[in-house]
Amino acid sequence: MTNNFVFETDxxxxxxxxxxxxxxxxxxxxxxxxxxxxxxxxIAPKPWTAETKIMDFTVGxxxxxxxxxxxxxxxxxxxxxxxxxxxxxISSTNMFCDxxxxxxxxxxxxxxxxxxxxxxxxxTKVDVVKIFTDEATVKMFAEMGFKxxxxxxxxxxxxxxxxx
Length: 164
Description:
With 164 residues, the protein is α+β, with helices and mostly antiparallel strands. It is 24% helix and 42% strand. Strands 1-2-8-7-6-5-4-3 form an 8-stranded antiparallel beta sheet.
């Protein structure tokens, strides 16, 4: 299957656009993006893993999670949900934080919107736009391997969707 992967960086607009198709129904893809037990199976590029501490998938709720290195070091992120349209849109503000959810002073913030659309009933297109507060943060994400990590995570999501 051609996945039509797109990864575009726009420094002037301070954003990254990611688009990808998955060979699964919108219902299956939505569950994989919203249920912690499923998210943890694909979102961290191997050999890293993901660990959810809190998931309150409601507008105003939070997802507090860590990317865990093979050595056990945890890098925490807090996502505050700003909009949810069941089966079609998830929007959040994202910040690095500590294990308790206290944001790290001076750490970058981003706004993320993920849109889900059905293709012929058995495929799903996911469009993600990440908007950052400054160009330096966009560059930092690019330099730390965000594109490569996204590709790995999405390939792991393909495997998960095929096994469900």
